[in-house]
Amino acid sequence: MSFLCRLPRRTPLSTPWIARSYASSTAPASSSSAAKKDTEVTRTPAIPLSSCPPDTVLTGLNFLKGQSPVLALPDDQYPEWLWNILRPKEWQDDGPGGRAERAKRRHTNRGNIKDRNFMSTQ
């Protein structure tokens, strides 16, 4: 058995939060199976809610002495970009040599470098 085989890495597109967000918004099922094949169901991920209710004391955020406790705000008082910050970037495909192709090439190159560095320590 050879230890020089490449170990599979987890890609950023297979994060578990994507699967959970699509499962929360389901479309109603149609009665016939032929209609299911003809219609393409597009699901949009639900807007995530904060993990704590408003006015919850967030421990560990007040690191200065004498600071009042930090309280959670309602969801509508946070900026809109906060709810989308964990989504992976999606580059527009603009042909060969474009930004999407460069980003994909850099991602695979970094993975190869990490694999090569890992194998050099073995």
TrEMBL record:
Top-rank lineage group of the source organism: Eukaryota
Official protein name in the record: Uncharacterized protein
Species of the source: Pluteus cervinus
